[in-house]
Amino acid sequence: MKKNHIWLTLFATSFMSFMQLLDASIVNVAIPSLTKDLHVPMNRAEWIISVYLILICMLLLFWGRMADQIGYIKIFQMGTIFFTIGSLICAMSPTLPILLLGRVVQGFGASMSMATNIGIIAMIFPLHLRGRAYGINSIIAQLGNISGPGLGGLILGFLSWHWIFIINIPIGIVVYIYGRFMFPKEERKVSKVSYDWTGLTTYAIAIGAFFVSIFMGQDIGFGNIAVVGTFLVSLLMWIIFVRVEKHVKSPLIDLKIFRIPRLTLSLISALLVFSIGYYANVIMPFYLTDFRSLSTELTGLIMMAIPLANVIAAPIAGIFTDEYDATNVSLCNLFIYAIPLLFLTQISTNNNLIIFTLMIALLGIGNGGFQNNPMIMGYAPKEYQGVAGSLAALFRNIGMGVGISLATTSLYYGMGLKAHKTVNYYPKNNPSWFLSGMHFAYITAVILLIEAIILVFIIRKIDKSSKKA
């Protein structure tokens, strides 16, 4: 493959990742419009975001293992087709059920492409260029993850919500056509596909039931027998999954990897930080468009401060990581992260928008400076590098799903405390309820941050002990 072609292929696969991660967050800013156009309450509309992430979490590991057997490019190309078809269904949706169907198809396709793009990069790039290629892919993908609300706000300022899905269609078509002619030929790796189907089934049910129980609880109450039963199903499936993985010949996840304390703690801290990052995606559009009565264009511009700050912070943090190691750099940035989170726990009705924008830019700096990938991959032995990469992607996506769940649940609970009743919608006639809910939600975000800081401190302590030994 010619040198200029490998870089074009990198941007083709990375840009698909950008669009798929963008679609995990761009819908957040459209939720106020969707609730009005589709005539659904706020908590039901949140399913439009959640079902996409749940599908990705359920299927990411499956497609990664299948790609090892039948080929990365085949799976990636099929994922591009499904994602594009799902975008078309979403764009043409007249009702919430059809829109949710489109999101399911999108999530199915996105899980295929996300599971294989790193493998394609490893396949086409020589070893001396691979690190640079991974870095470019990571930056482009991360931009998609955090720039959704900002770009969504700008699009909705001029066009209807349908356009946040329409823009995917020509990009998906171009990427597929490019891959059809320019991706290298790939031979089938095995004659017979084998898989840990029991592990996949129990894992998928456990993930799905966990998130379903949370969103059902928001709708009908966490004490409801159906909610409790669904959560118990999830717990039972996790127990069965662990037992199966310990005894099956080719497990879905080699649980031995979790015996490496620093790696496990790095994965959990990454999940916590990604969860915190999603609070802004869920809550800010309602705060700016409904509570502050700003236009969607201005909302988009303000929220673009987060990805712009992230883009600046990430490479600078990477340079410092080479000098001072990932753990120390991550710890410093988590303390930076604390500043805007504490500010948001006390935010008032008429905060200056310039100060507000500077504060949420610090969210981007704290998030971008947190060196989760260098920590995870740095603590993984050579024989676990592939598994660690898949787990990093999985914990990132689970973190997004958990972030949505915690942000919405704590927001509704905080509003309910103020209103002295259950509230699972934006209270137009009582904006003070929303502000109280927002304060409560960000208090829970601060608690998550404290947990992440403690974990990184423990990792740092283990680092020091291992160096002395």
- Could you give a short account of the major beta sheet? none
Average pLDDT, to the nearest integer? 81
The oligomerization state is: single chain
How many structural domains does the protein architecture include? 3
Low-confidence stretches: none
> Strand pairing plus helix content: what structural class?
mainly alpha
Strand fraction equals under 5%
Return Rg in Å.
22 Å
Within CATH, the superfamily of the largest domain carries the name: MFS general substrate transporter like domains
Number of helices: 19
Helical percentage: over 70%
**CATH architecture classification of the largest domain:** Up-down Bundle
Subcellular location: Cell membrane
Keywords: Membrane, Transmembrane, Transmembrane helix, Transport
Protein name: MFS transporter
Domain Major facilitator superfamily (MFS) profile: 9-463
Protein described:
With 469 residues, the chain is an all-alpha fold. It folds into three domains: 1-188, Growth Hormone, Chain: A (Up-down Bundle), CATH 1.20.1250; 196-249, no CATH class; 256-469, MFS general substrate transporter like domains (Growth Hormone, Chain: A), CATH 1.20.1250.20. It has 19 helices and no strands. It has helices at residues 3-37, 42-45, 47-70, 72-91, 96-114, 117-124, 127-156, 163-166, 168-182, 197-220, 225-247, 261-291, 296-303, 305-324, 326-345, 353-369, 372-379, 385-419, 431-468. It is globular.
